[in-house]
Amino acid sequence: MKTLLRSLAGETLPVPPIWMMRQAGRYLPEYRATRAEAGDFLSLCYNPELATEVTLQPIRRYGFDAAILFADILLVPQALGADLWFVTGEGPRLSTITGPEDMSRIKGKDDIHDHLAPVYQTVRNLAAALPSDVALIGFAGAPWTVATYMIAGRGTPDQGPAHKLMAEDPATFDALIERLTEATIEYLDQQVQAGAEVVKLFDSWAGSLKGDAFEHYAVAPAKRIITELKRRHPGLPVIAFPREAGQGYVGFHAATGADCVAVDDSVSAEWVAQNVQPAGCVQGNLKSSHMVTGGDALVSEVRRIRDALSGGPHIFNLGHGITPDADPDNVALMIDTLRETVEA
Fold first, then answer.
1. d(Cα 49, Cα 51) in Å, to the nearest integer?
2. Active-site option among 32, 61, 72, 154
3. What's the 3-state SS for 235-287?
4. What would the pLDDT profile of 25-53 be if each residue is shown by its tens digit?
5. Is 224 a known active-site residue?
6. Residue in 6, 31, 35, 189 annotated catalytic
């Protein structure tokens, strides 16, 4: 069995499998060349041949244990009918959801697949092209995180517009979460049918949900999505990433049915080993900045995290995505350090 799947099944391995969030991306010169060929980011996402190529590039260069589909969490709102475009140097922009009249223009869950067909083709391409020991991860954004972009029309530092709509028009807010939950189930189901062996749910802004809101809008949708996917695909491993959840990481396996909980670098690996890993596989959590600075600090941190989480199932990863200013040589150093022979 592939090492990533063994860890997700609960096995403790002497060397944890490794992959890296945003491992196909702007830090690699070969990615920049392919993106230039595509013309723009969205054209790259919707070109199955080129999206396959950029997904495979870090596998060829580094020999990661898993490849993650190259796509974007905002393709789902676009498939639902939102306008989506990217502003160079600033990121995504979307048409906004501010009330029930905007929700009336959002499509149903069964109307997304024609738009997303190129993504499913990319998954099929990857399932055929990847080395036999490399697992294929599909993914989607979690409903809360995707909703924050749809409500604000862009990324925001505190997700304020989404919190405001939640408080002032809960009917519209809940309707949007419901629509996104349904669409996410169908989207990930199609990825699995196309060949994804694992799926990951990215809740990048989960940390701004507190108290009951975290339970209602991070935990409950994740549980519903995971439960339905596992009903349709028994044995499907699911990774959940409620970023910056803090104490919310504790019990997240049991509350949602996730096989693995990914953790960010705001919590220590030692804390994770004590409070999260007893419930199942964990993923993380090297600071992305080490991919920029490298050196002895990178080596010592890789060893510390590896050793701290060596008592249970662990997938080595960053605490967040690699940044465009990262040095590709530091990625190689991270992998070599993780896989070094550890003296007994």
1. 6
2. 72
3. CCCEEEEECCCHHHHCCHHHHHCCCEEECCCCCCHHHHHHHCHHHCEEEEEEC
4. 999 999 999 999 999 999 999 999 999 99
5. no
6. 35
